[in-house]
Amino acid sequence: MKKYIKWGALVFLVLCAFFSFTQIRKNTISGQITGAGEGDRIFLASYHASKDKFVTDDSAKVASDGTFTIKTQDKNELTLLFLVPKGDTLDISARQKALHVFLEGLGKYTVNGTAENFSSSSVSGGVYEYPEQKTLDSLNAAIENMRAQSMELHKNETPDTAAVAEFNRRWNELWKKDAETRKALIENHNNDAYAAYILNGMCFTASAETVSGIQELYGKLGEKALKTSYAKTAKKRMDNINSTVVGNTAPDFTLTSIEGDTVSLSSLRGKWVILEFWASWCKPCRSNNPHMVGIYEKYNPKGVEVIGIASWDKHEDWKKAVDEDGLPWINVNSAEKVKGQDNVSETYVINSVPTSFLINTEGIIVYRGHPAYIEQQLENYIGGVK
Question: Could you say which DSSP state residue 87 is in?
Fold first, then answer.
């Protein structure tokens, strides 16, 4: 009899464990979208590293009164919500139309907004209840308001200098407060995935002058936060910033030229090299190209090579722009996927284009900045001043 009791108890424990594991933990996101129609759908997508893209995880129908409830698995990551009208198909690539919702652990989240401006809907619950996040929301609203004021302020050809100075003062104060608030959020919630996410975002505007402060914050992240993809990406970006400052050896790369030749930076050792990061869609880049052509024609006979590196550019648009602008140097596209090599624009931490690097004959970076100053740099070095 005791034997059967023991077996019964064992089976009971196994069943409890089974139902415990098969009962999937869920987050709940509910809300009301004014203007959404019955039968419209809300889709939730998250980033799948194995596919290197956002993929739909869950969806829910919108009721006649615009309300919806969607449930998704326990997550610690950024998710995207899309509102798709009845009969339409989801285009995940149109991320500008998505509402960003960060899910930290398990929780209940509430979304309220309109179908017309769905991506700007308000979100409450979870990390959105942090005092620091509420401050960031207020600051973001104030910054957007000031962007509109800036357009008004600069409508006149000769804007009021006193008004511009006051605007700049308030603008700088807002961004200073924004940075202080992000720092406080990371420090006060240092083991959250959200803290690593905020830190990673700060890395995308970091420079050689500001990266030390971000590294200090990174050192305060807890064990759970450090395991996230956001922390790993932030660490890599900080390392890239430090490795591409003036005085360091320029990171090597290999890409295929527009003519189909294999080109590596290291193969040009012994020559002065200008890395010109640009894009076909960038108007300042295209306006600067004739000036760069003049520099190339003047300095190439003196041993200067130029590698034009298209950033965030479609292959056909890039090729067309190279032909239209008559760019005579080595032209490559950072979008080319090379096994074992990161995107070159990311390696060199290109936040905006055009951006130029000047590399000496020993492969050392001697200048990083706007191409408008490249000629003066060449005069200084090749002209014998330095």
Answer: T
What is d(CA 305, CA 273) in angstroms, rounded to the nearest whole number? 5
18: confidence class by pLDDT, cuts 50, 70, 90: very low
Rounded-to-integer distance, Cα 147 and Cα 101, Å = 24
The dihedrals phi and psi of 11, each to the nearest 5 degrees, come to: -60, -40
Q: For 116, phi and psi rounded to 5 degrees?
A: -65, -40
Label the pairing between strands 254-256 and 41-48: unpaired
Q: What's the 3-state SS for 187-213?
A: HHCCCCHHHHHHHHHHHCCCCCCCHHH
What is the token pair recorded at 258?
């527009």
Task: Reply yes or no: is the peptide bond before residue 328 cis, omega within 30 of 0.
Answer: no
Q: What is the per-residue pLDDT across 371-385, written as a single tens digit (0 to 9) for each?
A: 999 999 999 998 744
Three-state SS for 56? strand
Q: Report the run of H or E that residue 26 belongs to, with start and end.
A: strand 26-34
| C-alpha to C-alpha distance for 57 and 308, rounded to whole angstroms | 40
CA 359 to chain centre: 27
At position 340, the amino acid (one-letter code) is G
Q: What is the chain's alpha carbon radius of gyration, rounded to the nearest angstrom? A: 26
State the pTM of this model: 0.83
Token duo for residue 199: 């830190």
Rounded distance between C-alpha atoms, residue 221 and residue 224, angstroms? 8
The DSSP symbol for 118 reads G
Task: Show the DSSP H helices in 31-125 as ranges.
Answer: none
With tokens 């100075």, the residue in question is: 165
Q: Are strands 108-114 and 26-34 parallel, antiparallel or unpaired?
A: parallel
Percent helix / strand / coil, the chain, rounded to 5: 45, 25, 30
